[in-house]
C-alpha cells in the first residue's frame, strides 16, 4: 500500500467576477476560502482592462461565449485574490463547483449562490486557476511582480 502524499503548497489566482461583487458576495466567498484553511496573500478590487482579459482568456478566443464573457468581465469591478495553501489549486476549484451553475453541486460556491440567468454567458461568480502553470501565468496578469 502506498502512503497518501501530502499535496504541495501552492498558490492560485481567484477572481470574484463582477456578478459576485455586484451581489455583495465577496465576503461570503472569501469566508469560504479562509474557512477551508487557505491563506489570502493578496486581495485587490480591480476594474479589468480589455488587454488584461484578452490575455487571461486567450484560450477561449474564437469560442461563441468569448465576446459576452469579456463584456461581462468589463461590466464592473472584479476582486482579484492570491490564495495559498496545500493543494489550493484543485481545492478552490472544488469549493467553486462546476462551471455551469445549474450543474454545480449544493455546498459549492456556484451551487449555492449562482444560477442560470438565461444570459449568453455563465455568470458563475468566481474564477480559479486550473494548474500550477495557469496560476503563475494568471497571477502575473492580475498582480504583476508577485
Ligand atoms: N463560459 C461560458 N459558457 C461556456 C463555457 C464557459 O459562459 O460554455 C464562461 C464561464 O464564465 C466560465 C468562463 O467562461 O467560468 C471560463 O470557462 P472555463 O471553461 O475555463 O471554466 P471555469 O474554469 O471558469 O470553470
UniProtKB/TrEMBL annotation:
InterPro entries: NDK-like_dom, NDK-like_dom_sf, Nucleoside_diP_kinase, Nucleoside_diP_kinase_AS. Keywords: ATP-binding, Cytoplasm, Kinase, Magnesium, Metal-binding, Nucleotide metabolism, Nucleotide-binding, Phosphoprotein, Transferase. Its cofactor is Mg(2+). ATP binds at residues 17, 65, 93, 99, 110, 124. It comes from the Bacteria. Its EC number is 2.7.4.6. It is found in: Cytoplasm. CDD domains: NDPk_I. The active site is at residue 127. The keyword Magnesium applies. Residues 9-146 form the Nucleoside diphosphate kinase-like domain. GO terms for molecular function: nucleoside diphosphate kinase activity. Major role in the synthesis of nucleoside triphosphates other than ATP. The ATP gamma phosphate is transferred to the NDP beta phosphate via a ping-pong mechanism, using a phosphorylated active-site intermediate. Belongs to the NDK family. Homotetramer. This is Nucleoside diphosphate kinase. It comes from Isoptericola haloaureus. The gene is ndk.
